[in-house]
Specification:
There is one protein chain. The protein is an alpha/beta fold and 220 residues long. The chain contains 6 helices and 10 strands. The strands form 2 sheets. Strands 1, 2, 3, 4, 5, 6, 9 and 10 form an 8-stranded mixed β-sheet that branches. Strands 7-8 form a two-stranded antiparallel ribbon. The longest helix has 23 residues.
Amino acid sequence: MHAQDQELVALFDGLDTPGVSDAMDKLGLHGQALGIMPLANYARAVAGPAFTVKYVPSSNPPGTVGDFIDDVAPGDVIVIDNDGRTDCTVWGDIMTQYAGLRGIAATVIDGVCRDVGKALGDGYPMFTAGRFMRTGKDRVQVETVNGTVAIGTVRVAARDIVVADANGVVVVPRGHAREVAETARRIEETESRIREQIVQGKTLGEARAALGYHKLQAKE
């Protein structure tokens, strides 16, 4: 991973998708990937720059499917746009194993995966629109790599910052990464202070009113 990628990803260390989502709302940015769900209740969020892949229906003869993974850098999040198709997979156990060996951070698919037992057993983070056993070979093929794709109604450009956890996936436009991370941390600090006040005996309404909870996500 390049130095600038490392710097941007580090900004999101310790943040979760609810906090990042709230920050995006406050800044008027759309990045919540609707319908893309985690395979498991991952304990920690993962973050990384997007390596984007666009799939299309197969030509005749059919093109390749998963060979792009050789070009993915450690720490990247693979983002696959299969147009939300649920009738055939674009990811299986061999790719899970290879991604884990290469230190790839996670895989996000607007479509389905299979061999989920391997991903769950290895603890490899995956976020998809579902799961299905039928192969995508001879049904879909890679059309473009590191172009702009769509995931769950969200536009994703190569090297945007992807944050994903048990709640789902948020895509942060690269040019807004710093302000989103800074805003998310300010929101989290306020919410932590609310939690402290209710432990000290204040009502939830009192604590929220005192710290401006209802305006935390409002656009400025």
